[in-house]
Amino acid sequence: MAGENIFLTNIQRFSLHDGPGIRTTVFLKGCPLHCPWCSNPENVYGNDGKYCTPEKLLREILRDKIFYDGDIRGGVTFSGGEPLLQIDSLVPVLEALKSENVHTSVETCLYVSRKNLDTAMKYIDLFHADMKIMNAEGALRILGGDYGLYLRNLDALMSARNDVIVRIPVIGGYTDSAENIESVKKILAQYAGSIQRVDLIKGHNLGASKYRKLGLDEPCCMGVSDELMLKYERDISGLGLTAEICRI
Amino acid sequence: MSKAKDFLRKSVLFAKRKTLGTLLKFPFIVNSKAFQNHKASSYFKNVNHHPDSYHETSGEKRIAYFHGSKSEQIADMLSMIRIRIEPGKKFQCWIDEGLYTPSINSMIGNLSPNYELVIANSLHGLISRYEAMNNTVARNNVTILRAVCSYADRIADELDSSGLTQSAEIFRNMKDSPAKNFEEALQRILLWSSIFWQSHHRLVGLGRLDKILSPFIEPGKSQERIELIHGFCEALHRHYGFKSNGIAKGDTGQIIILGGVESDGKYFANDLTYDFINAFIQRGVPDPKLLLRVSANMPGEILRLAVDCIASGIGCPLLCDDDVVVPALEDFGYSHDDACNYVVSACWEPLAYGKSLEQNNIGSINFAQVIADVYRDKNFASLKDFDSLVEMYKSKLKLHILKVLHGLNAVRWEEEPLFSLFTEGCIESGKDMSQGGAVYNDYGVTAVGMSNTVNSLLNIKFTIFEDRKFTAEALRDAAINNYPDESIRAFLDGHKYFGRDEDDVISLTNEITGFTAGLVEGYRNPFGGRVKFGLSSPNYIEAGRFTPATLDGRKSGEPLGVHISNPKGVPYTELVMFASSLKYSGVRSNGNVLDYFVSPAILHDEREKFYDFTKSAVKAGFFQMQMNVVDSAKLIDAKKHPGKYPDLIVRVWGFSAYFDELPEEYKDVLIERALSAESKSA
Q: Which of A161, B215, B584, B646 is deepest in the core (most CB within 10 A)?
């Protein structure tokens, strides 16, 4: 394996909210986007983090192997930041995890190169994929991402898989407009057969103290009403999909 | 009152509640009469202030005197008990708290009698069996059994005159036939248990009730059985204050053992295993308590039920991992069958069921005290490396442990015809249990302060020998002066290692317990018995009072670490992997409990995952595990407003209690641990 080429901020054992079963979540540093509501800014900005060898990361992940083999199969989730940015460095780890029969998942925004996505699809068992601002102008202006690239990646992923978990952050002033919700629903309907579940994530300010610590301005996000969340959930259920409102 | 009588009464009061607790603190002077007198008088004052400690029934104190025979003293006691029929109750059970049976020596206790003897036999049947034998134990057995016959008659007569003829019949049946059904069996256990308590035994356990009551399971009658279990537990819970040991109400030792691996490797459980757990989920009362023996090959649904019970917040069942405990006990010297048939003392210290003297909590090792001995040594500042530090620690630990062991042989046990009746080996050998008549005659000591020790030693390693952040002198002076400089204390406090599954932490812990084991293995008590120790002790607060500052940032007098628990931020999986890497075999098997807090939200939202976690933890192989399911906010509010949560139950050490009834500093420790589990600061 290679040297210390994986840049991460944290390895969190006993994670219960990042996929099925009991998991270890690896927070990888760096993200192509700058979503104003990001709740993990420490994974995006600043220099905090540590470099790690694939061997060491693998050892950390395997420490809890016995807990992954429950009635609900758990495993490892690569989160971030955007984990697919470092997918090449993760390949040796992913190969070893395959041979150890450890379930893997990623939480991705899909704003990455097609090559990185293809590598990830070769190894990763379960994808959590985001749907944020669903128009080219807003995606570029607010998130700093290439919407065309996102759509092509989404299509590639949805064509290859039938169990994708879609994550939708519902953020006042950013993703809660009627047009955005309509766009999301349209795309969900298009890929309904590839989607296992839709998680609706209500905006929160849990990251506020982290912004202060990083010397950044606190994000200014408006909340959304419970009614809106419930209606969103109903609308998605209306498409024949399972939707859940997540409490994070 | 004559001087002699006064002495006797004080001894009684002394023996009544504090023998084991006192032994624990002062093992080396326990047999001094002067000491007993002095302690007895101060104890007498306390007992009078205890709201419901004695004579619930009558203000008059009466004494069944010792006239040279303990069995006759117990027979006299039985004839003197004031019977208190309770017409509305399912079971008849009482303790005459005004009646005393004086003892001069230490009482054997902290055991679970195997009540199968009196369930499967009639009193007359047992009398004829023992009349045919000619030894002291047989004669004592006959004396006691005859007295119990008369007592049962007296009870039956009183029941008759209260119009409770059905209950009277149950007591009469005891004389001439084995128990006929579940209800009769439970009433017999209650009667004998009350006789143990009445004769001032402390911490009287209940034993493997699903196992010994299995002949009485009738298919499809689960609901009836659960109703009876409710009545049974309600009867055991009467005299809660009288039964509680020490200052924390709830430490009664009334433990019911369920499940367990059999000699053939199969997991034993039956309908009663489920019934008991289900009854406890409904009950929501801290005493009696449950222990579930678990194994990787147990049915998942029993473990699931246990998780549901724990989630209800009553702090039990304590889980004992048979896959670890049974081999550890075999290694200690139990036969395979006896290791598989273990129960525990009042908290968690294992012992062979119905075959043991096993006084498992008669001394205490304080690993943390030795840290102070180390930094006070004049050579501390000139230590060159970590290895020489560990060597110095061991040399001081040796002195400490030898002192603890030396104290054990001073103990003299009161003659014990009651336990001798229930304990295998006594009738066969003709020797009373106090003379080493049982099959196993071992002792046990508990241990505190391992986490403080490991954290202190590793703090020294990293700050003095590696990073050179502090000098040895600076650390020593800080500790001796009880941390006048908060920054040093905070730094040490902020670096915790014990509970992390890192190689250096695990190997250091195993090295210290291994060294201790080496010293302890050489010990033999007057009966040829051995002594075992474990990393769990009830006295983390009491021992903390006398322990100087340690180099983990703990100030002098503050509580020591609790059992095997996690420092702030260490996830449960890591704690389990740490615990499963420790060595527990042989003399290290005297109770090793993983103890942690879980937020009720996790058990509410993620019950399935938590069940998976528990199941995997069993597979990983902890020794024992217990948890508090409560959040800090509720505890803080409850401390601020006593009475607001009258039903709030917490696990304290080997028992659960009502939060409101705990001393304030116990509340503080619980709050601090709950905050730490939520990664918050006080």
A: B584
